[in-house]
Write a structure and sequence with these properties.
Layout (H helix, E strand, L loop, with lengths): L5 H12 L12 H38 L5 E16 L3 E3 L15 E16 L4 E4 L2 E7 L2 E8 L2 E3 L3 E17 H12 L4 E15 L2 E2 L3 E12 L4 E13 L1
Antiparallel strand pairs: 1-2, 1-3, 3-8, 4-7, 4-9, 5-6, 5-9, 9-10, 9-11, 11-12
Length: 245
Amino acid sequence: MRPLANGDHHHHHGHGLNPPPQRHHTYYPRSSSSSASFKGCCCCLFLLFSFLAVLILAVVLIIFLAVKPKKPQFDLQQVGVQYMGISTSNSSFFDGTTATAVTTTPTPTTASLSLTIHMLFTAVNPNKVGIKYGESTFTVMYRGIPLGKASVPGFYQEAHSTRNVEATIAVDRANLMQADAANLIRDASLNDRVELRVLGDVAAKIRVLDFDSPGVQVSVDCAIVISPRKQSLTYKQCGFDGLSV
């Protein structure tokens, strides 16, 4: 073997001392990229749902315009007087079983009215689609004084149909004071007529493809006159004070 020269020995020794080259890797945080991807996904979903909502709204609006919804009709057809009795603090004035007058003081300070009436309403749906009615409440009043109420549960009415709705108002000894009591006694004794007012709000929604329209309210306003002696209805006039949305 040939001995190594001094130069060769130093050359190889120096080469062995040099460290191997190192590779430098650049690390990027994954959180920022994941966050950007998540935000992009949310934005796409939001745009998709917004587009679908606008599309559904446009379809429903087009259908409503094509259907041309009309207001429902809710009318009081019949009123049956089952009982009417008037009494004062001194003695009974009118009793539904006898329907006779009893002499009382000229100016009674208090009077009470008992009344049971049965009402038959007719609901008419002139639309090509169904109508969903909510619960309705009817109030009977005497000279602006509420005497009693009756509730009608909600129901669904088919297109182009007529439906009868019944309600009974029972008033048990509604007290009237002074002037109102005197008016009631005078109306019953002298005129044999007691004028009452029936008020009610009927809430309805037009239904198209399982979608309900905004609430539509029809207000019922009826004047009825009852004869205490005959225990029967002598006059009825109904009107609607308009349609409010």
